[in-house]
Amino acid sequence: MADSYLNLVNTPLPARIAKALGLPRPSVLRRYTPSEALAVNPVVVAGSGPGADALADVLLGWDVEVRRHVLPGEKLSAAVVVLDAAASPADLAAPMLELGQAVRLLVPGGRVIGVLRSPADTTDPAEAAARQGVDGAIRSVAHELRGGATANGIILRGSTTTTDPTALGALRFFLSGKSAYVDGQFIEVSSAPVESISELAASTAATGEGVADQPLAGRTAVVTGAARGIGAKIAEVLARDGARVVVVDVPAAGEQLAQVANRVGGTALQVDITTADAATRILDHVRQRYGTLDIVVHNAGITRDKLLANMDASRWDSVMAVNIASQLRMNEHFLASPVFSGTGRIISLASTSGIAGNRGQSNYAASKAGVIGMVRAQAAAFDGGGRTINAVAPGFIETDMTEKIPPLTRQVARRLSSLQQGGLPVDVAETIAFLASDSAAGINGQVLRVCGQNLVGA
Ligand code: NAI
Question: Cα–Cα distance between 66 and 88 in angstroms, integer?
């Protein structure tokens, strides 16, 4: 499962050979460790206006060295370009060119983060052009960065300010190693109802204190398909962040499931999620042991690949049953139950195949695109309340599922992203833990790709 080329090309002689031959040179990514500093080097905040000034002040409060302009030769951990006041395309030039200077000085694993307003929130053509323009510019920067650096954007919806707790939560996520494999992506944030943001999240937003603590302390999470792969890692990361975790998988995976439950100090529940009483059994288990269900991660998923011309009903039906029909049915039960929290979170696993399509995966892509449809419709129903639902769409992740891909195809698939490598289960898990936290209370109905800016459907 290990990417041996990635390891090889990060040693001196092979690195020189790869450079000389023009071969891909993926970098070892800067991933989260509990003791990590958000920024070791200074962070430049480019852009003018009250939104940029306020954001720079917050970063100072987080003990980050902040620069409002690039200083010649000074290495930077990150560059935040604040364009929330852009009213016409002409307003982009100065801050983007400043960003260009900053990009030259980024350390390996550095971050570029754009902060902008949504084109959907204006009817002024010039303003919409400016806002949409930022989208294109940031995605292009993400393609240009090297050394494991990433570029992403935070889109402020409505009157959300640059220092809204959810905007700051997204900023912290993008600055940290938790977003290592999220690249070329945008998160839309709205002001969340006050009751769905805990004191911890509010104080973290204001002072940066409390971040290392456990943002999911006291929460109960259910993770389906948790006996192995991405699901097992999600369970681990949610537990690390303080959640009590119920891990769910089919009875055939019972032994592995018990091991995961032991490792995360949680409980195991052997349930096939396609059965009619799956949600009732999960709710009963949670009610009896923990009282309230706060976080649901619909991770269980299967592939049964065939060209549509050769597809049979069993392949089509089994994929739809596990990957989408079960989620729809379980959500209906969860939402009708008093056990599901008023500030509950649902996070579903989609896939880049569900966004771009993939040869031989019409059934899988239908199910994963279905997840996206479900999430958007449910999010509209949640809007303005305390609950949220979002999807995470992984690209190529190193798991048993992708281990089944023929070796040569697998090598090519790994390099087809801006980061030139597959992601790890932990990359998906960190994104899900972020979406489950109070800091993400204003993020609803989003589909966040964890794909290293995979070129497919980007
Ligand atoms: P995996 O095959 O390693 O693990 C899936 C788990 O789901 C297994 O433990 C399996 O027993 C369980 N499961 C299957 N059917 C079930 C059912 N009816 N009831 C309960 N549990 C069931 O898969 P992996 O790679 O960890 O993927 C996890 C999720 O991420 C899936 O939804 C997958 O579609 C999605 N994904 C994975 C990508 C990758 O590159 N590995 C890329 C895009 C999406």
Answer: 27
Q: Which position among 32, 181, 290, 364 bears the catalytic label?
A: 364
- pTM for the whole thing? 0.95
142: Cβ below 6 Å to ligand 1? no
The encoded tokens of residue 339 equal 């056990």
- Start-to-end CA span in the chain (Å): 25
**Cβ–Cβ under 8 Å, residues 446 and 118:** no
Ranges assigned E (strand) in 232-279:
244-249, 267-270
Q: How far apart are CA 48 and CA 40, in angstroms?
A: 24
Mutational test site, ligand 1, from 401, 432, 447, max ligand atoms within 8 Å of CB: 401
| Tokens standing for residue 106 | 């980024």
Atom index in ligand 1 nearest the CA of residue 256 equals 9
Sheet of 106-117: strands edge to edge? 66-67, 43-46, 76-82, 106-117, 150-156, 186-189
Cα of 137 vs centre of ligand 1, distance in Å, is 34
- Mean pLDDT for back-to-back runs of 10 residues, the chain (458 residues): 79 80 84 91 95 96 94 97 97 97 97 98 98 97 96 97 95 97 97 75 70 84 98 98 98 98 98 98 98 98 97 98 98 98 97 94 98 98 93 94 84 90 97 96 97 81
What is the Cα 334 distance to its own chain's centre? 23
Distances (CA, A) of 400 to 274, 328, 425: 21, 26, 11
For the chain, which domains are there?
1-30 (no CATH), 31-191 (3.40.50.720), 213-450 (3.40.50.720)
Distance CA(203)–CA(115), nearest Å, equals: 21
Q: At what angle do helices 50-61 and 199-207 cross, to 10 degrees?
A: 100
Of 102, 120, 119, 130, the residue nearest 45 (C-alpha): 102
